[in-house]
Amino acid sequence: MYAGIATGTGVALGSFENILAGNYAAPYDMVAARGGEAEIMFEKAIASLGGMKAYVKKNQTVVVKPNIGWDVSPEKAANTNPKLIAKIVEHCLQAGAKDVFVFDNTCDNWQKCYTNSGIEKAVKDAGGKIVSGKSESYYQEVKVPKGVKLKNAKVHELILSSDVFINVPVLKSHGGATLSIAMKNLMGIVWDRGFWHKNDLHQCIADFATFRQPDLNIVDAYRVMKKNGPRGVSVEDVVTMKAQLIGKDMVAIDAAATKLFGLEPANIGHIINAEKLGIGTTNLDKLNINRIKV
Amino acid sequence: MYRYLKGIRVTLSLLFFIGITFLFLDFTELISTSVFKGITFLQFVPSVIKFLSIGGFITLGFLVILIINLLIGRVYCSSVCPLGVMQDIVSFFSKRFRKKKFRFKYSKPHNILRFGILGVVILAILFGSISLLSLLDPYSVYGRMTSDFARPLYILGNNVIAGVFEKLHLYGTYVVDIKKVNWAAIIIPSVFLITITWMAITKGRLYCNTICPVGSFLGLVSKVSLFKLNIEETSCTKCGKCSFACKSSCISIKTQKIDFSRCVSCYNCVSSCSTNSVKYKLAWIPVKKSKSIITTDSGKRDFLVKSAVITAGALGISNVLKAAANKGVKLIPYKKKHLVSPPGSRSIEHFSNKCTACHLCVSACPSGVLQPRFFESGLSQLLQPHVDPLAGYCNFECTRCGEICPTGAILPLTVEEKKTTQTGVVNFIKDNCIVYTNNTACGSCSEHCPTQAVKMVPYKGKLTIPEVNQEICIGCGACEHACPVNPYRAIYVDGNTVQKIVKKPESKKLEEKEMEEFPF
């Protein structure tokens, strides 16, 4: 039943060690929660996975990567829910994390994104550290040996230096990638996104997913932008779905989120490509999913 | 009282200088836009232009300057003008590095040159061009130097510090990438920087009394000032200290006269005099009209010839650059009819007639999208900023440039107004588009579009391709910035000659329904 995870974690961890991968046998492959506030769903879901202690050990450094791509307010759902981020930071610190860093390589002006998304304040209030992702000097060249089109990328140093990597995408529509979920969110930890767009976007997203699987993916589907994504035009693009997914396998979690959105994983290029690369599975029936109604 | 004059001048001048300099240096948006307005309120040329452009109480800074000038002389030049204070600072420090103690001495006024330049500047304005005024306005000259040279150095300094902290995993400070440097446009500020620094080191305030049109104009006003500095012949010992201390070289010991039209009210003479002989004296006896404004044809000709030479040179350079970019590229080239002016600048006509190219907006723009032009839009828009999608794109929620523009070239917009103000329109070249050429997904342009004037629509199979709606495009340049195709984009914004109000993008509320079961 952990087959999905095993394939995922086995892939290309590169030069750094993922301390936790493989060590912890989670009771579920994935947790799906619905019907509550984002922070409440998170607390229930993480508890069922053994709490944040299972993922963050004392004195470890954690990097949390939300989507903070756009200079819009939380209601527009272009960015991850700030309340969820605050709760995650809080849990990491309670588990004994030395530092919890939060950043994104934003599209809009980064200071404005950080402020107006509400995430900067949420992180600071929770005791985490919000960091700039907007200077090439923070990014270091890495190889992507399993990549088909994408052979190397410049990755933010915090992703390379932190012990634990928590990926917190928001589920939303996307004009180019159809949907933006966990794998697509990793575009925010690399510098040269233009290359991806120029060289088969769906393949590059899948290629980069071979580089480092996050230790945890938490998909925010509390508010979901159904159209005009990823930036959105107004709150009228958004529905309140009140859902959340937590899991390790990015392919599985993207597949589940796609179904939440109302589409089929088989129609999303990068999910198919990633499954072919052996990053994870779209066969949700084979997974042990804990479904929670809050 | 006289003892304190110099101290007051020095204090005031440093306050203004540091304030203005920081406006141009700061990249953290630390300073609110109302402080910007307060600090630039008294800048003479911007204030006059703003008064003529929009009027109102907040544009009367120039009147304050004129009144003070009519009372006690060119206080603007000594304390308010950042370029003037910069020259004082340069000569103050250059003194320290000289073997002989640096002394000034009296020189005759260069009346033909200074009033000639002033005359040509005024003539040019009467003929509808403020280009020459913009080029010489001391506030704008200083702004360009600070924005184009000092600011990058300031950011570099920040980056060194932030880089050290970063190594220690301290992220309170951050590294800032310098977006783009328009090397061609830096030529002019460089020439000014070198010339003025050299003049300040060797001759004190020579620039202010030969080239600066504001200095010359205020000098004319000084001729009819109510109070003028004067040497009391009875107590004066002709020791010459005042003349040595005079940055304007306007005190003649031989005749014991001060040429008040060149005096920049620095009060060095007052404090240097051991017998307290330099004092203000009521001068309410109208001065005979001897020379008013003298315009010289030769000066004008010289300028025209020079500007023609510069123009030709510049065009040559830009043509070479274009040729290099074109080599070996199969992309379909395009030529923008107009560059995009900042939102709130109404029209090319309004903007080109009001902007003195001080580059305050270039410094203050949080997105770094405002970049100086060179000759791309001709002489009339020399060094004026434009929305440059290669450097960034105009943030949908931001109205900062209009709020801080000291001349009214960019007028303030509310956020709501800005969101429907069309500065330019989008154009899509399908033949250059990745989706068309590579048959792979992209959508970078549409992704960044705040109004969905660029929308992805079904193409082949699962692919989508951009479709543009010029009706709701505001010209922010996000699509052009994000398009990964080089050197010619698949999508670009062409500037409007007149900025328009467009419709807000329509949207319908989606149906909400509660999830009953997980769909997996």
Our Rg estimate of chain A from Cα atoms comes to 17 Å
**Major protein interface:** A-B, 63 and 49 residues
Query: How does the major sheet of chain B shape up?
Result: 2 strands, antiparallel
Helix-strand topology string of chain A: HEHEHEHHEEEHEEEHHHEEHHE
The average pLDDT value of chain B, as a whole number, equals: 89
DSSP, total strands of chain A: 12
Number of strands of chain B: 10
Structural class of chain B: mainly alpha
Q: Quote the CATH topology of chain A.
A: Rossmann fold
Q: Which bin fits the share of residues in helices of chain B?
A: 40-55%
Q: Point out poorly predicted stretches of chain A.
A: 1-22
Percent in strands of chain B:
5-15%
Number of helices of chain A: 11
How much of the sequence lies in strands of chain A comes to 15-25%
CATH class of chain A equals: Alpha Beta
| Form type of chain B | elongated
- The number of domains of chain A is 1
Strand order of the largest sheet of chain B: 1-4
Describe the structure in your own words.
The complex is a heterodimer of chains A (294) and B (520). By secondary structure, chain A is of the alpha/beta class. Chain A has a single domain (16-293), classed as LarA, N-terminal domain (Rossmann fold, 3-Layer(aba) Sandwich), CATH 3.40.50. Helix content of chain A is 31%, strand content 22%. In chain A, the strands form 2 sheets. In chain A, strands 1, 2, 3, 4, 7, 8, 9, 10, 11 and 12 form a 10-stranded mixed β-sheet that branches. In chain A, strands 5-6 form a two-stranded antiparallel ribbon. In chain A, helix 3 (82-94) runs parallel beside helix 5. Chain A is globular. The model of chain A is unreliable at 1-22 (pLDDT under 50). Chain B is mainly alpha-helical and 520 residues long. Chain B is 46% helix and 9% strand. Chain B is elongated and about 100 Å long. Classes of the chains: A alpha/beta (294), B mainly alpha (520).
